[in-house]
Amino acid sequence: MKTVIQIVLIVAAIILAYLIYDSVERPIEFEKAKDARFKVTVQKLKDIRKAELAYKDVNGEFTGDWDTLINFVKHDSLPLVRKIGMLTDSMIEAGLTEETAIKKGLIIRDTINVSVLENVFNESYPIDELNVVPIKGVDAKFHLGATEITTGSGIIVPVFEAKVHNNTILEGLDEQLIINLNDQKRTNGKYPGLKVGSLTETNNNAGNWE
Predict the structure, then answer these.
(1) Cβ–Cβ < 8 Å for 160, 63
(2) Domain check: are 150 and 66 in the same one?
(3) pLDDT in tens, 167-194
(4) C-alpha span between 122 and 89 (Å, rounded)
(5) Left (φ > 0), alpha (ψ -120 to 50) or beta: where does 197 sit?
(6) Is 28 a member of any domain?
(7) Measuring CA to CA, how many Å separate 197 from each of 23, 63, 67?
(8) What is the Cα–Cα distance from 173 to 138, expressed in whole angstroms?
(9) C-alpha distances in angstroms, 61 versus 57, 64, 160?
(10) Taking 70 as the threshold, does the pLDDT of residue 4 lie above it?
(11) Domain housing 175
(12) All residues at 6 or more sequence positions from 142 whose CB lies less than 8 Å from its CB, including other chains
């Protein structure tokens, strides 16, 4: 009987030690995985922002359609002012302005068109995956929207928003810890995920991680 009790106590001690270890280690491992997934997701949201800003530079508005945005980056171009030379002290002393120096061919200022893909990213950038959440094993796309907001002073401001929920970013991780994280965000009045821009306020296209 004494031996049985000892065995039970040993098993109970092992189980208790495991539960204590798990209660400490589980949140640590979750945070590591969360931080790694958030890092690549934030980078993709920054890329989306760059694409949207380039689109607005050309079209005067943002787009809430992925096909439109991706095709723009793949096939459209941006005007770029080429500057060769500058006004020297001797030119200024001679009474030359930039305009007259350009006319005389002393300096060059002209506009050329450059590929959006090459200028904003690079030719090897996987632009067709711009809308894909970059988490291995997660098959999902970012939500994208665009609209216009009228400010209190009556100014109409184009805005966009790209976002993805924590449930998607953290898919496959500890469900209870995901629930706790989402509840914490909602309690603080924040979106339970990552997003850039806003459809309800003018936030200068900021991300909620900034």
Answers:
(1) yes
(2) yes
(3) 999 999 999 999 999 999 999 999 999 9
(4) 38
(5) left
(6) no
(7) 37, 12, 19
(8) 11
(9) 8, 10, 9
(10) no
(11) 34-74+122-197
(12) 44, 45, 48, 131, 132, 133, 162, 163, 164
